[in-house]
Design brief:
heterodimer; A: 285 residues; alpha+beta; nine-stranded mixed β-sheet; six-stranded mixed β-sheet; 7 helices; 31% strand; globular; B: 142 residues; five-stranded antiparallel β-sheet; 4 helices; 30% helix
Chain lengths: 285, 142
């Protein structure tokens, strides 16, 4: 059996080995890696992925289940366990990307990753933590159309000094069918943020039709809980997360409330609400 | 009664504004934010100070006047949140406190931020709960 090619990368302190039988797919795999990755040398590895093309006529015993289907196709393994199989490499890459991002979100050593949308505004970050279907992407798209800088529609990436880093991926727009479509932020008239910035505002909000934005203030401690409750590593590295969040929320304003239409809300936010809150924050610092 | 703050299995972070204290309970994977009063009560609950003396010490340490009922309420909330080594309950009926059942409801919803008189609590999410679910590969047209 041919020895697989391997690439070693490090992402936020997490060391990943990616093996593949077919070197021609390396470019496609590299396109799945999150921003911030770099190559690393031989070292202790946290997780090993393997992309394998399986021919039913040359099946190995470890793939007996797959062989039973009699189909050829791609298979993705993580630490030896089958994660997904598909005849479509792109579909498999999506699963790889999701699995890798979750693993890194849990085990990151140099960054804290929060499920949140982020835009930059007046040199500070607006962080919008929230679960799926809370309307984060729609709101982020509306904000960047109004001039906010795009940082991420999915992850807020904090360093230990409390700065938020860009994590630009194409906006993942949910279509009517529930499927997602990736669209570059530039298509929404957006400018992508390039440098790490401090947190200015944390918004705990979700879409409710016809809702009027009447937020309540959260304390710094409550804002930290809001970030923690959207962090995959919460149960794994709570001390690291709490320390990072404590620094990150310093001098920020945290608000909680339901919002209505994203475009109207974004306009109100940038032209009115945050301007007032910003002045208040400046007085508090 | 000599209430004692639970410190074993806890991660403690102090937040600068308004004297808040954050506690992460590793045994239950719950995170709590104690407001100023609750934090003061928690700090003074050393296991050797009777409640009457503790009330006096908390009042002394506070910059503002604190009603005795509020301190008792904080003690009850700390107890209900499993933040004291031994549970504590004030005898007598004329005290406004949250029942344990109410407290457990408050922390039951993952990620839901709910505030009581003194303590805000969440149940920390599992990785899957904190992540956008990935849709399976599109099977294509039927």
């Amino acid at each position: 059996m041919r020895k697989p090619t391997a690439v070693l990368v490090v992402i936020f302190g997490v060391r990943i080995e990616i093996q593949f039988d077919d070197p021609s797919i390396v470019g496609r795999i590299a396109s799945c890696l999150p921003s911030g990755w770099s190559l690393c040398g031989p070292t202790s590895i946290d997780r090993i992925y393997r992309f394998s093309w399986t021919d039913p006529h040359r099946i190995t015993s470890s793939l007996s289940t797959a062989a039973a289907s009699g189909a050829s196709g791609w298979r993705l393994f993580a630490d030896g366990a089958l994660v997904a199989q598909s005849g479509d490499l792109d579909a498999l890459c999506e699963r790889f990307q999701a699995d890798l991002e979750l693993f890194v979100a849990i085990h990151a050593r140099t960054r804290v990753i929060v499920h949140a949308g982020v835009v930059g505004w007046q040199g500070r970050a607006i962080v919008i933590p929230g679960r799926s279907f809370s309307g984060k992407t729609t709101l982020v798209a509306a904000l960047i159309r109004l001039g906010a800088e795009y940082y991420s529609d999915e992850y807020a990436v904090f360093d230990p000094q409390g700065f938020v880093w860009p994590f630009p991926k194409p906006l993942s727009i949910r279509m009517g069918s529930g499927a997602r479509e990736a669209r570059p932020a530039e298509d929404a008239g957006g400018v992508v943020g390039r440098k790490p910035i401090r947190v200015g505002w944390i918004l705990l909000t979700e879409y409710r039709p016809a809702e009027v934005w009447e937020p309540r203030d959260l304390t710094n401690g409550q804002a930290i809980l809001a970030l923690l409750s959207n962090a995959a590593a919460a149960r794994y590295q709570p001390g690291f997360l709490l320390t990072t969040f404590r620094v990150a929320v310093r001098g920020s304003v945290a608000l909680q409330g339901a919002r209505g239409d994203a475009t109207a809300f974004a306009h109100h936010l940038l032209t009115d609400s945050l301007a007032v809150e910003s002045r208040t924050a400046d007085l508090l610092v | 009664m000599t209430p004692q703050a639970r410190r074993t299995g806890m991660i403690i972070e102090e937040v600068e504004v308004d004297g808040e204290v954050l506690l992460y309970d590793r045994e239950r994977d719950q995170a709590h934010c104690l407001n100023g009063v609750a934090a003061l009560v928690w700090r003074h609950a050393d296991g050797s100070t009777p409640v009457d003396s503790l009330i006096g010490r908390v009042r002394q340490a506070s910059a503002t006047a604190i009603d005795e009922d509020i301190i008792w309420s904080a003690l009850e909330s700390l107890s209900d949140a499993h933040l004291l080594v031994e549970p504590i309950h004030r005898s007598g009926a004329a005290v406004l406190i949250e029942s344990r059942r109410t407290m457990m409801k408050r922390v039951a919803a993952v990620g839901a931020i709910t505030a009581g008189a003194a303590i805000t609590s969440i149940l920390a999410p599992t990785p899957a709960q904190a992540q956008t679910p990935t849709l399976p590969p599109d099977p294509g047209p039927d």
